[in-house]
Amino acid sequence: MIDPTRSDPTRSSHYATGPAGASALTPSSAVAPHARRPLAAVLRVLLAAAAATGVALKISLSADLPRALSDFSVQAGAAFALCTLWSAYRIGSGRRPVSPRITGALLLYVLAAAALHHTHLAPGTGSSPVTGKVADQLLHTVTPLGAVLDWLLLTVPRQYRLRHTWQWLAYPVLYLLVALLRGALLAPGTPGRYPWPLLNTATHGYPAALFHALLALLALSLLAAPLLAIDQVRPAPPRPGYRISRTGIGPLKYSNPATPTEETPGQPWSSGKEDQG
Questions:
Q1: What pLDDT is recorded for position 128?
Q2: Domain range annotation of the chain
Q3: How far apart are CA 116 and CA 185, in angstroms?
Q4: Which of 73, 130, 181, 261 can pair with 113 through a Cys bridge, CB separation 3.0 to 4.6 Å?
Q5: What is the pLDDT of residues 33-75, one digit of tens each?
């Protein structure tokens, strides 16, 4: 009679106990180290530099510093640059990636800022046409395209959740409330009183301005829905340093060219019984 408390490598890992059961039930992400990806880190540093340069040019072109700092595209670009730089450090050093809850939110924000700019819903840039166009291209074209490519080519799919799409709206809701409150506190006729013309209560009135704010939140949630859907069906990018074991040998393993990849003798998954069959 077989002792059910003993771990048998020939039995299913679902019923295994002891060290063998713990090894079988532990996810590979908990035991396999994250590979260092220096090329991806360099690309993210360049992307962060592009976003930071666009933000710096935007601020330098504005004669009103508080107005420039209250711009949604400036705030989204600055947050995206900092997060991308931190993500470059983590992926270059082999650490766990930044939470998709954060990276997904910033991806949504830079895409929303680009949509606002290209649909001419946002106010124009400063007085220098050449520098202003460079800033707009960096913030509203280079940064969103780079963010999308980074998401599709350098991140693991199926990380976004439905609850994330609602959490991503927290900052836009706070931003719209602060924008309306700031406009109410400033004197009429103050330059840059409202970040967007559609929020101007002096022109449209408070009911219309609130309605426009709700439409903006609805549009943002509609933009978040495709991101969630695409993330569930897109293929996984190639992960260097990992390989799948032969049938019956074991789970996902980390392959280091400097060390042998054969299974360690004496482990339950390399007892030799599978090769004999």
A1: 58
A2: 38-162+218-233
A3: 25
A4: 73
A5: 568 888 999 999 999 999 999 999 999 988 888 888 889 999 9
